[in-house]
Amino acid sequence: QNEVREVLVEDLMIRLPIVAQKWQPIALVRKQMLTHSISFIPVYIDKWILLSEMAVAKYLACGRQDRLQRLMHSIEDAIRYGFQIEDAK
Fold first, then answer.
1. Is the entire prediction scored with pTM above 0.90?
2. Beta-bridge partners for 26
């Protein structure tokens, strides 16, 4: 009675993955990562890229006033200001 069942992609994937939008502020992306205990979040900006929790922490590691301003930057703007991204492969 030990039948071997083939594993399908649908068995491993979730229906509504958490993704970020390029217009969303860094504060919201950070909140999503903390709420869902995820280390990376994908965003599509001409191609799929990954935002890491480490990149968020490094981006926000500055003076208090600068940190508050950076939290309001959209993902797209943050990338222009040096936010580190990784290609999603």
1. no
2. none
